[in-house]
Amino acid sequence: MTTKMKQLKRIDLIFNHEDDCKEILKKSFARTNEEVINEMVNSGLKGRGGAGFPTGLKWKLTAEAEDSPKYVICNADEGEPGTFKDREILTRVPHKVLAGMAMCAKIIGSRQGYIYLRGEYKFLVPQLREELVKFHQIMDELNLDFEVDIFLGSGAYICGEESALFESMEGKRGEPRNKPPYPTECGYLNKPTVINNVETLAHSYTIMKYGAKKFRELGVKDSWGSKLFSVSGDTPIPGIYELELGMSVQDFVDDFGDGDTKAVQVGGASGFLVPRKRFAKSHIGYQGKLTGVSLPTGGSMMIFNSSRSMYNVLDNYLDFFQEESCGQCTPCRVGCQQLLKGIKAVKRGEKPAVYLDKLLKLTDTMRLTAKCGLGQSVANSFSSIVENFREEMIY
């Protein structure tokens, strides 16, 4: 543990093994659907995949949808660079994820669930299959007609986007759909679907076990509860840590930095880079509800010290985005290519420094016109790196 001025509170809700999945589900099943939905809503749990949509509301809207059948899908396509927490959850406490899926299934009236597993996590399949045998036995004992199967992805980053994930599962090219309609009314096979991140479902189990009141003892207003963070980069203690939402980036750096941290990438390649001068005023949470700047995150926290070139970091991100763009919409397909070509041209002196301003305007256009989160979020890392480390883009 660090001996610096302030230590972040380390929490152990997700990976705590002291529980009985069957008994907790039995107690939850004894409650009415309305009671459980209210518990979820009152907990303030928001999607831990990064989007931050209220989980209780998602379940409620899907339960109210009239069409059937309905589906529960666990999004385990953990493709965001710098994120590795979901893999650990599925390895160490898969029963919590499955229990969350079961509770959701009872509420919305679903008989079928799927774990959409990242293709690179194929090695987890045998272990998950064994866990599913135990889980289905519990479902039989509790008289819930609900079955979960595994769908293996093929390594496409874009399939982490929920509608592209549905397309992939339906045997089509993994491309985002137009919205609306939303998954709560038209998801997998065009039927009402709840799709939650691995960690979100694990936290649903936490709320079933401890209640909304205990969950809200952690975090801050509108950013309640704890969050798993994948900590990597220039840190002496890389790994996965469960911390409260609402912490400042400065607090995080005090605990995890190496004493020479110049920037932190919050939320992976699609997130925001926070420079040293903004550590104290930047908080991890949801927009508009915290003092200073609030930054939502799927959990990736990449730390960079003074030895790192932010130009090289941005070049790496843009190369990744260019490769992973599905190519469906022009703003993302062409925009990613032009951004990468643009910073290289400026670095080589083929374009003047003011060309960076044109590239920033291009990211503004991409944010507004790209069809899905991939093209829209390119602006996050590009603008935050260029605006704060412009000199490294030029010299």
Automatic annotation (TrEMBL):
Record keywords, A-Z: 4Fe-4S, Iron, Iron-sulfur, Metal-binding
Domain NADH-ubiquinone oxidoreductase 51kDa subunit iron-sulphur binding: 311-356
GO MF annotation terms: 4 iron, 4 sulfur cluster binding; FMN binding; metal ion binding; NADH dehydrogenase (ubiquinone) activity
InterPro entries per UniProt: NADH-UbQ_OxRdtase_51kDa_CS (IPR001949), Nuo51_FMN-bd (IPR011538), Nuo51_FMN-bd_sf (IPR037225), Nuop51_4Fe4S-bd (IPR019575), Nuop51_4Fe4S-bd_sf (IPR037207)
Domain of life: Bacteria
Similarity annotation: Belongs to the complex I 51 kDa subunit family.
The name this protein goes by in its record: [NiFe] hydrogenase diaphorase moiety large subunit
Naturally occurring in which organism (per UniProt): Ancylomarina subtilis
